[in-house]
Design brief:
alpha/beta, 13 strands
Length: about 375
Amino acid sequence: MTGRPLHILFAGGGTGGHLFPALAIAEEVTCMRPGTRISFAGTADRIEARIVPPLGYAFFTIWISGFRRRLSLQTILVPLKIAVSLVQSAMLLRRTRPQAVVGTGGYVCGPVVYMASVMGIPTVIQEQNSYPGVTTRLLASRATRVYLTFEETRNLLPSTREVVVSGNPTRGTVGEAGRDEAHAFFGTDAGKRTLLVFGGSLGARSINDALAAALPALAAADVQVIWQTGEQDFERMRRYGTATRSVGTVHVLRFIDRMDLAYAAADLVLCRAGATTLAELTRAGLPSILVPYPHAAADHQTSNARAMVAAGASLMIPDAELSGRLGGELLRLLSDTGARKTMADGARSLSRPGAAKTIAAGVIELAEAFAHG
Protein backbone atom coordinates (compact mmCIF):
# COMPACT_ATOMS: atom_id res chain seq x y z
CA MET A 1 0.00 0.00 0.00
CA THR A 2 1.29 3.46 -0.83
CA GLY A 3 0.14 6.86 0.28
CA ARG A 4 1.43 9.78 2.25
CA PRO A 5 4.96 9.30 3.64
CA LEU A 6 5.14 7.42 6.91
CA HIS A 7 7.08 8.53 9.95
CA ILE A 8 8.57 5.85 12.21
CA LEU A 9 10.28 6.78 15.46
CA PHE A 10 12.94 4.49 16.94
CA ALA A 11 13.85 4.63 20.63
CA GLY A 12 16.79 2.72 22.01
CA GLY A 13 20.44 2.96 22.85
CA GLY A 14 22.90 3.27 25.66
CA THR A 15 24.97 0.47 24.11
CA GLY A 16 25.64 -0.73 20.60
CA GLY A 17 23.69 -3.88 21.40
CA HIS A 18 20.51 -1.81 21.62
CA LEU A 19 21.33 0.74 18.93
CA PHE A 20 22.56 -1.37 16.03
CA PRO A 21 19.43 -3.54 15.75
CA ALA A 22 17.41 -0.32 15.48
CA LEU A 23 19.68 0.91 12.70
CA ALA A 24 19.35 -2.44 10.90
CA ILE A 25 15.54 -2.25 11.03
CA ALA A 26 15.58 1.40 9.95
CA GLU A 27 17.73 0.55 6.92
CA GLU A 28 15.29 -2.18 5.86
CA VAL A 29 12.27 0.10 6.35
CA THR A 30 13.87 2.66 4.05
CA CYS A 31 14.57 0.00 1.41
CA MET A 32 11.10 -1.53 1.59
CA ARG A 33 9.13 1.72 1.88
CA PRO A 34 11.11 4.51 0.13
CA GLY A 35 10.22 7.96 1.38
CA THR A 36 9.56 6.83 4.94
CA ARG A 37 10.82 9.38 7.44
CA ILE A 38 12.97 7.81 10.15
CA SER A 39 13.88 9.49 13.42
CA PHE A 40 15.52 8.39 16.65
CA ALA A 41 15.04 9.24 20.32
CA GLY A 42 18.03 8.69 22.58
CA THR A 43 20.14 10.17 25.33
CA ALA A 44 22.61 12.99 24.80
CA ASP A 45 25.66 11.32 26.34
CA ARG A 46 25.61 7.76 25.00
CA ILE A 47 26.58 6.01 21.78
CA GLU A 48 23.40 6.93 19.88
CA ALA A 49 24.18 10.66 20.10
CA ARG A 50 27.45 10.07 18.25
CA ILE A 51 26.37 7.43 15.73
CA VAL A 52 22.85 8.45 14.63
CA PRO A 53 23.11 12.10 13.46
CA PRO A 54 25.92 11.48 10.91
CA LEU A 55 23.70 8.83 9.30
CA GLY A 56 21.21 11.55 8.38
CA TYR A 57 18.41 10.59 10.76
CA ALA A 58 16.69 13.20 12.92
CA PHE A 59 17.79 12.70 16.53
CA PHE A 60 15.88 13.83 19.63
CA THR A 61 17.22 13.61 23.17
CA ILE A 62 15.36 12.40 26.24
CA TRP A 63 16.60 12.99 29.79
CA ILE A 64 16.70 9.54 31.37
CA SER A 65 19.25 7.15 32.86
CA GLY A 66 19.40 3.83 34.65
CA PHE A 67 18.91 3.19 38.33
CA ARG A 68 22.02 2.54 40.42
CA ARG A 69 21.73 0.57 43.66
CA ARG A 70 24.20 2.71 45.58
CA LEU A 71 23.00 6.05 46.90
CA SER A 72 24.20 8.93 44.75
CA LEU A 73 22.97 12.13 43.17
CA GLN A 74 22.12 10.14 40.03
CA THR A 75 19.97 7.75 42.07
CA ILE A 76 18.16 10.62 43.79
CA LEU A 77 17.43 12.19 40.40
CA VAL A 78 15.85 9.04 38.91
CA PRO A 79 12.22 9.88 39.90
CA LEU A 80 12.61 13.40 38.50
CA LYS A 81 14.17 12.04 35.31
CA ILE A 82 11.30 9.60 34.82
CA ALA A 83 8.73 12.37 35.19
CA VAL A 84 10.60 14.70 32.85
CA SER A 85 11.21 11.94 30.28
CA LEU A 86 7.50 11.10 30.14
CA VAL A 87 6.64 14.75 29.48
CA GLN A 88 9.42 15.05 26.87
CA SER A 89 8.22 11.87 25.17
CA ALA A 90 4.62 13.05 25.00
CA MET A 91 5.70 16.39 23.55
CA LEU A 92 7.95 14.67 21.00
CA LEU A 93 5.17 12.34 19.87
CA ARG A 94 2.68 15.20 19.52
CA ARG A 95 5.18 17.27 17.55
CA THR A 96 6.47 14.57 15.18
CA ARG A 97 3.26 12.46 14.87
CA PRO A 98 4.83 9.06 14.05
CA GLN A 99 2.66 6.23 12.74
CA ALA A 100 4.68 3.67 14.71
CA VAL A 101 7.24 3.65 17.53
CA VAL A 102 9.92 0.95 17.75
CA GLY A 103 11.78 0.31 21.02
CA THR A 104 14.99 -1.72 20.91
CA GLY A 105 16.04 -1.57 24.55
CA GLY A 106 17.89 0.68 26.91
CA TYR A 107 16.27 3.01 29.40
CA VAL A 108 15.42 5.66 26.82
CA CYS A 109 12.93 3.44 25.04
CA GLY A 110 10.83 3.10 28.21
CA PRO A 111 9.17 6.52 28.39
CA VAL A 112 8.87 6.86 24.61
CA VAL A 113 7.20 3.48 24.05
CA TYR A 114 5.02 3.90 27.13
CA MET A 115 3.68 7.29 26.07
CA ALA A 116 3.12 6.07 22.51
CA SER A 117 0.99 3.23 23.88
CA VAL A 118 -0.98 5.68 26.02
CA MET A 119 -1.59 7.86 22.95
CA GLY A 120 -2.77 4.92 20.85
CA ILE A 121 0.22 4.83 18.49
CA PRO A 122 1.27 1.31 17.40
CA THR A 123 4.33 0.18 19.34
CA VAL A 124 6.89 -2.50 18.61
CA ILE A 125 9.49 -3.88 21.01
CA GLN A 126 12.51 -5.80 19.75
CA GLU A 127 14.35 -7.84 22.40
CA GLN A 128 17.86 -9.05 21.61
CA ASN A 129 18.67 -11.27 24.58
CA SER A 130 17.40 -14.61 25.82
CA TYR A 131 16.63 -13.00 29.19
CA PRO A 132 14.53 -9.90 28.48
CA GLY A 133 15.70 -6.55 29.76
CA VAL A 134 13.78 -4.65 32.41
CA THR A 135 12.27 -2.26 29.86
CA THR A 136 10.95 -5.14 27.78
CA ARG A 137 9.47 -6.87 30.82
CA LEU A 138 7.71 -3.69 31.90
CA LEU A 139 6.35 -2.73 28.47
CA ALA A 140 5.65 -6.04 26.74
CA SER A 141 2.03 -6.15 27.90
CA ARG A 142 1.41 -2.68 26.45
CA ALA A 143 3.19 -3.17 23.11
CA THR A 144 1.27 -3.87 19.93
CA ARG A 145 3.86 -6.48 18.93
CA VAL A 146 7.04 -7.94 20.44
CA TYR A 147 9.84 -9.43 18.33
CA LEU A 148 12.19 -11.90 20.04
CA THR A 149 15.53 -13.43 19.16
CA PHE A 150 15.00 -16.63 21.16
CA GLU A 151 11.89 -18.80 21.49
CA GLU A 152 12.52 -19.40 25.20
CA THR A 153 12.16 -15.68 25.92
CA ARG A 154 8.42 -15.96 25.31
CA ASN A 155 7.94 -17.72 28.65
CA LEU A 156 9.71 -14.92 30.53
CA LEU A 157 7.29 -12.19 29.41
CA PRO A 158 3.89 -11.20 30.77
CA SER A 159 0.91 -11.81 28.53
CA THR A 160 1.31 -9.83 25.32
CA ARG A 161 -0.87 -9.03 22.35
CA GLU A 162 1.40 -10.58 19.73
CA VAL A 163 4.86 -12.17 19.88
CA VAL A 164 7.03 -13.07 16.88
CA VAL A 165 10.36 -14.94 17.08
CA SER A 166 12.32 -13.28 14.29
CA GLY A 167 15.97 -13.55 15.25
CA ASN A 168 18.15 -10.54 15.97
CA PRO A 169 18.38 -7.92 13.17
CA THR A 170 21.81 -7.16 11.77
CA ARG A 171 22.95 -4.47 9.40
CA GLY A 172 22.97 -5.44 5.75
CA THR A 173 26.60 -4.42 5.29
CA VAL A 174 27.83 -7.10 7.73
CA GLY A 175 29.39 -9.92 5.74
CA GLU A 176 29.38 -7.97 2.48
CA ALA A 177 32.73 -6.12 2.56
CA GLY A 178 35.86 -7.61 1.01
CA ARG A 179 39.06 -8.39 2.88
CA ASP A 180 41.24 -6.09 0.78
CA GLU A 181 38.83 -3.17 1.25
CA ALA A 182 38.75 -3.81 4.98
CA HIS A 183 42.51 -3.90 5.44
CA ALA A 184 42.92 -0.80 3.31
CA PHE A 185 40.52 1.00 5.65
CA PHE A 186 42.46 0.04 8.79
CA GLY A 187 45.90 0.31 7.21
CA THR A 188 46.65 -3.33 7.99
CA ASP A 189 48.21 -6.12 5.95
CA ALA A 190 45.64 -8.32 4.17
CA GLY A 191 48.20 -11.13 4.00
CA LYS A 192 48.60 -11.45 7.77
CA ARG A 193 46.43 -13.34 10.23
CA THR A 194 44.29 -10.77 11.99
CA LEU A 195 42.70 -10.85 15.42
CA LEU A 196 39.76 -8.53 16.05
CA VAL A 197 39.16 -7.69 19.72
CA PHE A 198 36.33 -5.71 21.27
CA GLY A 199 34.26 -5.78 24.43
CA GLY A 200 31.14 -4.14 23.10
CA SER A 201 30.71 -0.42 22.55
CA LEU A 202 31.66 0.30 26.18
CA GLY A 203 34.71 -1.95 26.25
CA ALA A 204 35.69 -4.75 28.66
CA ARG A 205 38.55 -4.30 31.12
CA SER A 206 39.21 -8.00 31.73
CA ILE A 207 39.52 -8.69 28.00
CA ASN A 208 41.77 -5.67 27.53
CA ASP A 209 44.08 -6.71 30.36
CA ALA A 210 44.33 -10.32 29.22
CA LEU A 211 45.01 -9.30 25.63
CA ALA A 212 47.76 -6.89 26.71
CA ALA A 213 49.49 -9.80 28.46
CA ALA A 214 49.19 -11.95 25.32
CA LEU A 215 50.55 -9.35 22.87
CA PRO A 216 54.23 -10.44 23.01
CA ALA A 217 53.29 -14.00 22.01
CA LEU A 218 51.02 -12.70 19.24
CA ALA A 219 53.79 -10.44 17.95
CA ALA A 220 56.22 -13.38 17.90
CA ALA A 221 53.69 -15.31 15.80
CA ASP A 222 53.37 -12.33 13.41
CA VAL A 223 49.67 -11.85 14.20
CA GLN A 224 48.23 -8.36 13.77
CA VAL A 225 45.50 -7.03 16.06
CA ILE A 226 42.63 -4.61 15.53
CA TRP A 227 41.64 -3.70 19.09
CA GLN A 228 38.66 -1.64 20.20
CA THR A 229 39.32 -0.80 23.83
CA GLY A 230 36.21 1.23 24.62
CA GLU A 231 36.18 4.76 25.99
CA GLN A 232 37.27 4.03 29.55
CA ASP A 233 40.35 1.95 28.70
CA PHE A 234 41.62 3.74 25.62
CA GLU A 235 44.15 6.01 27.31
CA ARG A 236 45.45 3.13 29.42
CA MET A 237 45.83 0.75 26.47
CA ARG A 238 46.92 3.03 23.65
CA ARG A 239 50.59 2.57 24.62
CA TYR A 240 50.36 -0.98 23.28
CA GLY A 241 49.70 0.31 19.79
CA THR A 242 52.46 -0.64 17.33
CA ALA A 243 50.95 0.57 14.09
CA THR A 244 54.33 1.60 12.70
CA ARG A 245 56.01 -1.80 13.19
CA SER A 246 56.10 -4.52 10.56
CA VAL A 247 55.71 -7.46 12.97
CA GLY A 248 52.88 -7.88 15.45
CA THR A 249 51.12 -4.71 14.39
CA VAL A 250 48.56 -3.60 16.98
CA HIS A 251 45.96 -1.00 16.04
CA VAL A 252 44.43 0.38 19.24
CA LEU A 253 41.13 2.18 18.67
CA ARG A 254 38.73 3.87 21.03
CA PHE A 255 35.71 2.77 18.97
CA ILE A 256 35.19 1.17 15.57
CA ASP A 257 32.44 2.85 13.57
CA ARG A 258 32.78 0.47 10.61
CA MET A 259 32.29 -2.90 12.25
CA ASP A 260 31.37 -4.39 8.87
CA LEU A 261 34.94 -3.69 7.73
CA ALA A 262 36.40 -4.90 11.03
CA TYR A 263 34.64 -8.23 10.61
CA ALA A 264 35.82 -8.48 6.99
CA ALA A 265 39.42 -7.98 8.11
CA ALA A 266 39.31 -10.62 10.86
CA ASP A 267 40.45 -14.24 10.91
CA LEU A 268 39.39 -14.66 14.55
CA VAL A 269 37.32 -12.53 16.94
CA LEU A 270 37.71 -12.14 20.71
CA CYS A 271 34.68 -10.51 22.33
CA ARG A 272 31.81 -10.64 24.82
CA ALA A 273 28.68 -12.68 24.08
CA GLY A 274 25.93 -10.09 23.74
CA ALA A 275 23.12 -11.15 21.43
CA THR A 276 23.72 -8.42 18.85
CA THR A 277 27.42 -9.24 18.65
CA LEU A 278 26.65 -12.93 18.14
CA ALA A 279 24.09 -12.17 15.44
CA GLU A 280 26.74 -10.18 13.58
CA LEU A 281 29.35 -12.92 14.02
CA THR A 282 27.01 -15.52 12.57
CA ARG A 283 26.07 -13.29 9.66
CA ALA A 284 29.75 -12.61 8.93
CA GLY A 285 30.58 -16.31 9.40
CA LEU A 286 33.47 -15.74 11.79
CA PRO A 287 35.15 -18.04 14.35
CA SER A 288 35.30 -16.53 17.82
CA ILE A 289 36.48 -16.78 21.39
CA LEU A 290 33.65 -15.62 23.61
CA VAL A 291 34.08 -14.23 27.12
CA PRO A 292 30.58 -13.80 28.60
CA TYR A 293 30.06 -10.75 30.78
CA PRO A 294 29.75 -12.34 34.23
CA HIS A 295 27.32 -9.78 35.65
CA ALA A 296 24.71 -9.91 32.85
CA ALA A 297 21.09 -10.37 33.97
CA ALA A 298 20.34 -14.05 34.59
CA ASP A 299 23.83 -14.75 33.18
CA HIS A 300 22.27 -14.60 29.72
CA GLN A 301 25.60 -14.06 27.96
CA THR A 302 26.77 -17.47 29.12
CA SER A 303 23.59 -18.98 27.68
CA ASN A 304 24.22 -17.12 24.43
CA ALA A 305 27.81 -18.38 24.28
CA ARG A 306 26.84 -21.98 25.00
CA ALA A 307 24.53 -21.97 21.97
CA MET A 308 27.48 -20.86 19.82
CA VAL A 309 29.75 -23.52 21.33
CA ALA A 310 27.13 -26.20 20.73
CA ALA A 311 27.06 -25.27 17.04
CA GLY A 312 30.85 -25.50 16.84
CA ALA A 313 31.07 -21.78 16.14
CA SER A 314 32.98 -20.57 19.19
CA LEU A 315 35.24 -21.34 22.09
CA MET A 316 34.01 -19.99 25.44
CA ILE A 317 36.39 -18.82 28.16
CA PRO A 318 34.79 -17.71 31.47
CA ASP A 319 35.91 -14.28 32.60
CA ALA A 320 37.61 -15.72 35.69
CA GLU A 321 39.79 -18.02 33.53
CA LEU A 322 40.74 -15.44 30.94
CA SER A 323 44.18 -14.42 32.17
CA GLY A 324 45.39 -18.01 32.44
CA ARG A 325 43.99 -19.36 29.15
CA LEU A 326 43.72 -16.59 26.60
CA GLY A 327 47.22 -16.50 25.15
CA GLY A 328 47.41 -20.23 24.52
CA GLU A 329 43.94 -20.48 22.99
CA LEU A 330 44.56 -17.52 20.68
CA LEU A 331 47.79 -19.03 19.35
CA ARG A 332 46.21 -22.46 18.94
CA LEU A 333 43.28 -21.20 16.86
CA LEU A 334 45.26 -18.66 14.87
CA SER A 335 47.67 -21.43 13.81
CA ASP A 336 44.89 -23.88 12.83
CA THR A 337 43.19 -22.86 9.58
CA GLY A 338 41.03 -25.98 9.55
CA ALA A 339 39.65 -25.37 13.03
CA ARG A 340 38.79 -21.78 12.16
CA LYS A 341 36.99 -22.89 8.98
CA THR A 342 34.94 -25.43 10.93
CA MET A 343 33.98 -22.72 13.43
CA ALA A 344 33.10 -20.31 10.63
CA ASP A 345 30.78 -22.90 9.10
CA GLY A 346 29.16 -23.41 12.51
CA ALA A 347 28.64 -19.68 12.86
CA ARG A 348 26.98 -19.40 9.46
CA SER A 349 24.60 -22.25 10.37
CA LEU A 350 23.10 -20.04 13.10
CA SER A 351 22.68 -16.92 10.99
CA ARG A 352 19.24 -15.40 10.46
CA PRO A 353 19.98 -12.65 7.94
CA GLY A 354 16.30 -12.01 7.25
CA ALA A 355 15.46 -10.84 10.78
CA ALA A 356 15.67 -7.11 10.01
CA LYS A 357 13.49 -7.53 6.94
CA THR A 358 10.88 -9.50 8.91
CA ILE A 359 10.66 -6.83 11.60
CA ALA A 360 10.70 -3.95 9.11
CA ALA A 361 7.79 -5.48 7.19
CA GLY A 362 5.82 -5.80 10.42
CA VAL A 363 6.55 -2.21 11.43
CA ILE A 364 5.46 -0.91 8.02
CA GLU A 365 2.26 -2.97 8.20
CA LEU A 366 1.35 -1.49 11.59
CA ALA A 367 2.26 2.05 10.53
CA GLU A 368 0.22 1.88 7.31
CA ALA A 369 -2.79 0.45 9.12
CA PHE A 370 -2.61 3.29 11.63
CA ALA A 371 -2.12 5.91 8.91
CA HIS A 372 -5.16 4.70 7.00
CA GLY A 373 -7.28 3.74 9.99
